[in-house]
Every structure is written in structure tokens, then in C-alpha cells.
Amino acid sequence: MILREHQVKAVNMLRDSICRGNKRPILAAPCSFGKTITAVHILAEAAKKGKRGIFICDRIKLVQQALDAFDAHGIEVGVMQSQHIRTNYDAPIQIASIQTLARKKHLPLFNIAIVDECHVHYKSLQEMMDVMSLTIFIGLSATPFSKGLGLSYNDLIVPITPTQLLDQGYLCPVDYYGGTRADLKGVRTRRLQTGATDYDPKTLSKAIEDDASLTGDIIKNWIKHGQNRQTIAFSPSIKHSKTMVDMFNAEGIPAVHIDGYMDDEERRYIYDGHDAGEFKILSCSRLLNTGYDAPSVSCLIDCFPTKSLIAYVQRAGRIMRTAPGKDVAIYLDHAGNVAKHGFAEHVVPEELHNGYEEYSERTTTKEKKEPTIRTCPQCYQQMSGIRCKCGFEMRFDAPLESDKTMLEKIKKTTNKEYTTKQKAEWLGQLEVYADQRGYKNGWTAHKYRSKFGVWPNKITAIKQYAVSQEVSNWITHENIRRAKSA
């Protein structure tokens, strides 16, 4: 099994954390990181040393997906599930859902457990962790932003960010289009299992379903921006999803609805048909939010508003996987989620919530504040602040008029994830690198400008004593890029 560089780094960081006494680390693995393959490697290496391991899935429906990953690498495993054809309690590695383990009177003994989608933390899992105090539990999640997660896990491992995965070609870039959305005035909220709040499904569904014009706009925008791509769609209710599917089909665009009430065989038939290109639009309410893996999908229609950062990042991740011929993905935002949460690839975990301090999902990420993104009524570009590039200036004594028909591409800001302090640290590391190699003073300024788009006139370097892997990798990437250009 050959791991990618960032996967090797993750394994080493986890090993170092465990050696320091942290028996409950979380690996923050962005979409397309290859977290399941990393888990397969960890458990296979443990089995070679005579250890017993278990891979715990968030849901029974994800057991087969995990089993396929182990089988692909020839790893012997057993499945702990009632009357499963692969039941084998003698296998050194077991796969089970948390629901199956919760029903067992006697828990199996194992040395290491890997918990997939650990941001959804179940009471039964916590009870298991409390009983098995000597067992190592490693959490996997792209979105470890849940309230009190730091009470159950004691270290956060972030080997690579989504932006770095993009730079290295492991993630597909996304173009975001936003503008039209439903009026959510009066929609109630509710508390989620993760500790965050989100819109109440019933009142949200009614608000979306009552907006008859929105669905028509969705179809027009897909025709304009979706470019006949393989597409998935999210609706606030099954009823809305089915209605939208009927309207797409009426326009001659083949679309199919899918939901969790269908049996496994019917859903598999639908998945296979979409993967084969037999129809263009695969529409759901929540089913595809996690565990869905179809790299060929390159467009997302989002008409499901959410206050949850976890739900938004997981949803956007469905179209970020790379595939041959897929140079860019399209996110059609009819829900206002991009304006609320920012660009998904800029969200990076920074710490686990300790359960005591004031909580919001944003307190656990590097981006504490997001700029408000609006549609300019003059040129229809996406703008932040009060002035647009076209010259329009927002007045505060009148409501902002916005286009209600077509979505417009949202402009991305560069290096959004870097704070002033981080830029100063970068400048300090560039100075160290230049000094080590005897480069002239101008080299540092030019490299800084190449990275951040401006000269470092307003940045005072913070003294550094070494060059981080991130800066070293970027310099190497720049040298390769320049060499190819030459």
C-alpha cells in the first residue's frame, strides 16, 4: 500500500501524538485526503504486530463502503453485523457501525479503534471509550467542529489544509455561483446533535416549497451554469426534491429523486445509473450529505439553507473529488450558504471545543469571521463590503436591491485563510530560507509578493529560526512552476 505524502505525515503525527500520551487524537482529514485508506494502513500495520483493531462507521449504510476499501488492499477483516456474509470474529480487524456496537451486551476487545465521522459523537460511543480507557481511539473527520468534542478527544491533528490539497492537485477547484434564495423570515431554529443550531426542517421546507418561482430559477441556472454536468441536488424536504425532479424532467433534463426510505437495492440501482450517465440530476434531501463518493459529479445544486458549518462543508465536499477531465466543479447556491459560511476550502480546523467556553462552530476554525457576500444590483457580481468593483456603493438608508433571476459567479479572494500574523511569520521564514542559501535581500520580497500578491511594505517579519514544511513545499512548487514556464 503506497500512501501519499500527506497521508504518511498524518500517520507520523498520530504516532507522535500517541507516544506523548494522547490516546484520543482526531485526524482532521479534508475531502479527498484519503482518510479511509489511511485508516486501512493504520489498522493493517497494527494487525501485523498482533494487535486487534476495529473500524467504527457512523451508520450501518457505510459499512459496505468501508469493507470495499479493505478488500481493495487485500486486508483480512470481519464484519460485526447481524447475519452478515462476512462475519468472522477471528479476523484481527473488524468493521462495525456504532448502532450495532450499541446493541451488544458484551463489547469486543481490541487495542485500537478508528471512528469515522467522529464529529457525530454518540452517547454509546462515549460509554465505550470510558470503559476501554487503555484502548486507543482515533477519530476521523473533515469537520471536527462539534460542541464539547475536546472532552472526548485530546489532540487535533491537521497534516494538510484543503487549500494545500488544491495546490497539489488532490482537490478539484470550485466555482461558486450565488444570488437568488428563498425568504427565510420567520423560519424557526433547532438544536443539532453536534451542539450547533440549524433551521427547523418543517418550517424551512414550507418556506422553500411556498416559493414557486425559486424552482424555475434553479432549472434556468443549471442550464446556463451547470453546462450539462453530472449533478447532485439538495432540497430541504423530500417533497421539494421530488417536485424539482418532475420540473427538470418536464424540461427534457433527466432527473431522479433518491432518499433513505428506499431499500438498498433500489438506491444502488439509482447510484449506478447516475455514475453511468443515464441521467443528469440526482436529487435528495439529506441522503448524499455524507458517505457519498462519486468523483465524476462536478455540479451541486444547493437549495437547502443551513446554519451548520459542518453540513455546508460536508455538502461542498461531494463535488471536490478529482476525476479525469474534471478541471473545475460548479456550486450553484440558491440557499445563501456561501454568503453565510464563506468558501468551503478556506475552512480549517484549529482546535477542539472544550465543552466549557462559549460555543459556535466558528470558534473551532481558523476563520473566525466571514465577510458578508452580496449581489451587486448594478453589475450582478458578488461583492463584500459596501463598494463593488463596478463603482456601485451601498446606501444604508435603503435596502439592497438584488437580482432574483440568474446566479452570478462569486469572486474569490486570494490567501483568505492567512492572518496578518501568519503573513509576518511567512516573511520571517522566507528570510531564513534566503539567509541559508545566500540569496540577495530582494529575493524575499519578490517571493512574498508571488505568494500574497502585494509587496511586504506593511508587514514586519516575525523572527523565525526554521522553515516550516508548508513554506518549503510552496517554494519547491514555485521553483517547479517557474522551471516549467521557462
Strand-helix topology:
Layout: H1 5-19, E1 25-28, H2 35-48, E2 53-57, H3 63-72, E3 78-79, E4 93-97, H4 98-103, E5 112-115, H5 123-131, E6 136-141, E7 155-157, H6 162-167, E8 174-178, E9 189-191, E10 197-199, H7 201-209, H8 212-226, E11 231-234, H9 238-250, E12 255-257, H10 264-275, E13 281-284, E14 299-302, H11 309-317, E15 329-333, H12 337-341, E16 373-375, E17 382-384, E18 408-409, H13 420-437, H14 441-452, H15 469-485
Question: Can you put this structure into words, describing what you see?
Answer:
By secondary structure, the chain is an alpha/beta fold. The chain folds into three domains: 156 residues, P-loop containing nucleotide triphosphate hydrolases (Rossmann fold); 213 residues, Rossmann fold; 66 residues, no CATH class. Helix content is 35%, strand content 14%. It is built from 15 helices and 18 strands. The strands form four sheets. It has a seven-stranded parallel sheet with strand order 3-4-2-5-6-1-7. Strands 12-13-11-14-15-8-18 form a seven-stranded mixed sheet, sandwiched between helices. A two-stranded antiparallel ribbon has the order 9-10. β12, α10 and β13 form a beta-alpha-beta unit. α13 runs antiparallel to α14. The radius of gyration is 24 Å and the shape is globular. About 2% of the residues have low confidence.
